[in-house]
Write a structure and sequence with these properties.
By secondary structure, this protein is mainly beta. It has helices at residues 21-28, 109-117, 133-139, 261-265; strands spanning 3-4, 9-11, 47-49, 53-55, 63-70, 87-95, 98-105, 149-153, 156-160, 167-169, 176-179, 195-196, 203-208, 215-220, 226-232, 244-245, 249-254, 257-259, 271-273, 279-285, 293-297, 301-310, 316-323, 341-347, 353-357, 363-367, 379-389, 392-402, 407-412, 417-418, 423-426, 436-444, 449-456, 464-469, 480-484.
Length: 486
């Protein structure tokens, strides 16, 4: 590959966060598995320009890739779960003047209280404990870490975590603007996986919680106004990470990962796998009207869906990454030895469900060209899982699916490298569904280097057409999105 770019210019922001010597010394003593290797956090914020580019960046790829993920500010003093970490946003901007990078913590009220105290104040999912009374009075019982996804809708950039309302950030500086609840209209939490209907621009999402009502469904207009909030009756609180929509319906998977708030308060695992309770799919009108129609399915767990679509006769297809049981653990119990694989659920007009396994290779973090959300899509992209050991996943590449032909190809990164979710960036001059590129952050663990890999979505097996070398190693994270320049 050709290499372009000057010597990167790296500097701390004037308002950046960093750790003092005592806090850094605390990190040197940290041996928590989910804070080592690909998960090892970084401890400051930087801005960098003139990044080195290997290969040729596509002419039409101008905009910013933002990715969210856990990066604790302070080393934990007790049990730690991967889902606990404070949010850090990593942003890479590509344009005709070159490539630049910046990272920022999402400054939640809980994290800033800990920064002021100089020590962790909150427990987490692996060992809950409430903060001191004065902190609880100001912040609440738990941190809104906002560490899972970053989306843009109606001119607002929102950092998301499924147990809390969104946190608004500045799309250019990544500065935290504060918790956003639609002027008080949003009750409860917001999923980290909202869906935008490409026909209307409306954003559809849900929120679940440990107390009734266990599930709420919401619709926000293209202009950013909360239009609809509907309570959905569930027999018990369950962990519901994602959902899907068609052009006519919203689809909820009620799966037996049961949430137990009493166990959480006692510092015990807060989620139990109870397959005897069964599992089902709920179908609700997209505008929230009417009743939910439920159809039973075999017990399983799904963290992420690829897409859903519906034909004129009312037959619905949903594609997602299915595990036979909950593939993560909370607390001391080991995770089930299961891996997610791509499946399709076909729901006919009478409500009968047929489940079909599409792939026997483990994978997750599925993505599409979002212009096809809720519509029939031919192409999908799945993070290929190289290893899954007791819930600890290592992504080793990207599998591109042609769902029409039932064919797939895979790009594998180097053996010492790990990658993440493949986000789709549409070619502004393109006309076909797969005209565009996949962007993913890849880290060489042996060399402690990270790259933004750019892969032609029309030829995924060929691997990156360009690699943007990051000015620092970027820890493994969760979800990100490409935001095209105006």
């Amino acid at each position: 590959m050709n290499q372009t770019g000057l010597t990167p210019k790296v500097e701390p922001p004037t308002d950046g966060l960093s750790l003092d010597d005592a806090a850094l010394a605390d990190w040197t003593r940290c041996g928590v598995p989910h804070l080592l290797g690909q998960y090892r956090p970084v401890h400051d914020e930087i801005d960098a320009t003139d990044l080195l580019v290997e290969g040729e960046l596509p002419e039409g790829l101008t905009g910013s890739y933002l990715r969210n993920g856990p990066n604790p500010l302070l080393a934990p003093h007790g049990p730690y779960h991967l889902f606990d970490g404070d949010a850090m946003l990593h942003g890479v901007t590509l344009g005709h003047s070159g490539a630049s990078y910046r990272n920022r913590w999402v400054r939640s009220a809980g994290m800033m209280a800990e920064a002021e105290a100089g020590r962790p104040l909150f427990g987490g999912l692996a060992g809950f404990r409430p903060p001191p009374d004065d902190v609880m009075a100001k912040v609440g019982m738990m941190k809104n870490t906002a560490n899972t996804n970053i989306v843009s809708h109606a001119g607002r950039m929102l950092a998301l975590m499924e147990a809390s309302p969104p946190t608004q950030v500045d799309p250019d500086t990544l500065a935290t603007l504060g918790v956003f609840d639609y002027d008080g209209a949003l009750a409860g939490a917001m999923t980290a996986h909202p869906k935008v209907d490409p026909a209307t621009g409306n954003m559809h999402f849900f929120g679940y919680g440990p107390f009734p009502p266990y599930l709420r469904y919401h619709v926000v207009s293209a202009h950013g106004d909360l239009l609809t909030s509907v309570e959905i009756d569930l027999p018990q609180a369950v962990m519901m990470h994602d959902f899907a929509i068609t052009d006519k319906h919203a689809l909820f998977f009620d799966l037996p990962a049961v949430f137990d708030v009493n166990a959480l308060m006692e510092g015990k695992p807060f989620t139990r796998w109870e397959p005897d309770l069964g599992a089902r799919i709920g179908v609700l009108a997209l505008d929230g009207s009417g009743q939910v129609r439920w159809s039973d399915i075999d017990p399983c767990y799904v963290f992420h869906f690829l897409n859903a679509s519906e034909d004129a006769a009312g037959n619905i297809d949903v594609v997602g990454c299915r595990s036979s049981s909950l593939p993560v653990s909370f607390g001391d119990q080991p995770a089930a030895d299961v891996s997610p694989t791509l499946h399709r659920w076909h729901i006919d007009a009478a409500g009968t469900v047929t489940t079909t396994q599409l792939d026997d290779r483990p994978g997750d973090f599925p993505r599409i060209n979002d212009a096809l959300t809720g519509r029939t899509n031919r192409f999908g992209y799945v993070g290929w899982l190289r290893d899954v050991v007791q819930g600890d996943a290592t992504f080793g590449g990207v599998t591109a699916w042609d769902l029409e032909r039932n064919e797939s190809v895979t790009w594998e990164c180097a053996p010492a490298e790990v990658c993440g979710e493949p986000s789709f960036a549409a070619d502004p001059e393109g006309t076909a569904e797969n005209d565009g590129w996949l962007v993913t952050l890849t880290t060489d663990l042996a060399r402690d280097h990270s790259y933004l890999d750019v892969i032609d979505a029309r030829d995924v097996a060929a691997g990156p057409v360009a690699r943007v070398k990051m000015p620092r190693r970027v820890p493994f994270g969760f979800h990100g999105n490409w935001f095209a320049a105006d």
